[in-house]
Amino acid sequence: MSASDTDLSVADVLRLTMASAYQRLIENEAGLRANNDDEAVHQARVATRRLRSDLRTFDRWLERHAAAELRAELRWLGAELGAVRDLDVMRARLRAHASNLPTAEADAAERVIRRLDADREAARVEMVTTIGNRRYSNLRDMMAAAAIHAPCTPPAHATPSAVLAAEVRDGWTKLRKSVRRLGDHPADEALHRVRVRAKRTRYAAEACAPAFGKRARGLAAAMARVQDVLGEHHDAVVAGAWIAKTAHECTPGEAYALGMLAEIERATAFAASDAFPAVWQAASRKRLRAWL
Questions:
Q1: What number of CA atoms fall less than 13 Å from residue 12's CA on the CB side?
Q2: CB of 59 within 8 A of CB of 150?
Q3: Quick one: 274 exposed, middle or buried, by C-beta within 10 A (0-12, 13-18, 19+)?
Q4: Rounded to whole angstroms, how far apart are CA atoms 14 and 93?
Q5: pLDDT at 4 over 60
Q6: Are 29 and 131 in contact, with CB atoms under 8 Å apart?
Q7: What is the C-alpha separation between 199 and 49, in angstroms, rounded?
Q8: Which of 49, 149, 225, 266 is the most exposed place for a label (fewest CB within 10 A)?
Q9: Which of 117, 34, 24 is closest to 78 using CA atoms?
Q10: How far out from the chain centre does Cα 279 lie?
Q11: Domains with residue ranges and CATH for the chain
């Protein structure tokens, strides 16, 4: 660490991560109101998820009531954003896979996928209403205040940021235990739990980057690769479940096309599951966590 890094306190690091989340949300507000700005929805959701994760990871350094209130409001906003984001992801992947089908089946699949457009528009209207109400304004004010004065306990202001490595190490240990419990043929739900823990470890490492620099960023990048592989697996499983549910409501031709899409999603999920061990082996190298 450089001299300036060692001058940071725990409170300084937590204030920086809260300021980053607030800035990301504000920068994407205009895009949230736009009709087709998928990236703005994604970035705003990441802001809420990242801050919620950091509030959980570093909770012992935070004032309990203020942190709990902020976490609850972030959960509420994240759910509103997630309703739109999940549909964006689903539509994009199904349309991409449908484009690889023969023309007749691609057209049939597109007719079914268009059902998601109406769902997405309804979710978007609700989201826009949400960010126009007082509850959202209050949350934004809470985040703005936390970006200036993080709701930390007194010891956080006097404790050097180096101790935060222990919080990241705790998250890493929980992640490793989850991976060890997977077995040779992990269930979809178990892989999803590993993904969630990898994401929390990534966010915690990124939050510590102001204090630990490239060492923290290296671990975060490795966790991001784990998250990406398992995210692809999860998205394929979710898409497959939607296809299975929707096929019963379709014409025979549409159901046949959806069956082809289901095979693509199943193969994608298997490929991601098969790729995970190698990605995990690379991400769990000791040198990546020597700073913990």
A1: 15
A2: no
A3: exposed
A4: 36
A5: no
A6: yes
A7: 10
A8: 149
A9: 24
A10: 18
A11: 3-289 (1.40.20.10)
As a whole number of angstroms, the distance between CA 283 and CA 170 comes to 16
What would the two tokens of residue 194 be? 């590993």
| pLDDT tens column, 111-136 | 999 999 999 999 999 999 999 999 99
What are the tens digits of pLDDT across the range 55-71?
999 999 999 999 999 99
- Please name the residue that has the structure tokens 């470890």: 201
Which amino acid does the sequence have at 197? R
Can you read off the two tokens belonging to residue 287? 């040198």
Question: What does the block give as tokens for 188?
Answer: 């979809």
Q: Say how far apart CA 148 and CA 128 lie, in whole Å.
A: 27
Dihedral sign from CA coordinates of 241, 198, 8, 164: positive
Q: Take residue 156 and report the two structure tokens written for it.
A: 């956080």
Q: Over the chain, what is the mean pLDDT?
A: 95
SS (H, E, C) the chain: CCHHHHCCEHHHHHHHHHHHHHHHHHHCHHHHHCCCCHHHHHHHHHHHHHHHHHHHHCHHHECHHHHHHHHHHHHHHHHHHHHHHHHHHHHHHHHHHHCCCCHHHHHHHHHHHHHHHHHHHHHHHHHHHHCCCHHHHHHHHHHHHHHHCCCECHHHHHCEHHHHHHHHHHHHHHHHHHHHCCCCCCCHHHHHHHHHHHHHHHHHHHHCHHHHCHHHHHHHHHHHHHHHHHHHHHHHHHHHHHHHHHHCCCCHHHHHHHHHHHHHHHHHHHHHHHHHHHHHHHHCCHHHHCCC
